[in-house]
Amino acid sequence: MAKTILMVDDSASLRSVVAIALRGAGYDVIEASDGRDALAKLAGQKVHLVISDVNMPNMDGITLVQELKKQPSYRFTPIMMLTTETQPEKKEAARAAGAKAWLVKPFQPPMLLEAVSKLVLP
């Protein structure tokens, strides 16, 4: 059975690039445009990994991480931030909220897939 990854980014083109790479590697992908959209689309279903941008309208990525970690069904779901941000304060805020990894855009799909393979829940 394919593992499901939630991809959250306000850029439709970036979501598409990531989704193509992930689907090509055999993952199912749920796409969301921001944190609020992500929470609505999850609605309790199991995901094996969340990949989220940091800067988004309505609900940013760090707030999304905090909200997910409050929910028992997502407390142990690994979260990777995929962002243009490089400031140590942002990385630390994401880590403190519960994010497990940080990948900076632009990225190479093989690098993304390698990180995903290490993080995805069994």
Automatic annotation (TrEMBL):
- State the UniProt keywords alphabetically: Phosphoprotein
A biological-process GO annotation: phosphorelay signal transduction system
Q: What is the lineage of its organism?
A: Bacteria, Pseudomonadati, Pseudomonadota, Gammaproteobacteria, Chromatiales
Enumerate the transmembrane spans: none
Reading the lineage from the top rank, the first entry is Bacteria
- Name of the featured protein: Response regulator receiver protein
Q: Domain Response regulatory, which positions?
A: 4-120
Q: State the species of origin.
A: Thiorhodococcus drewsii AZ1
- Modification type 4-aspartylphosphate: residues: 53
**Which SMART domains did the record assign?**
REC
Per the record, a Pfam family?
Response_reg
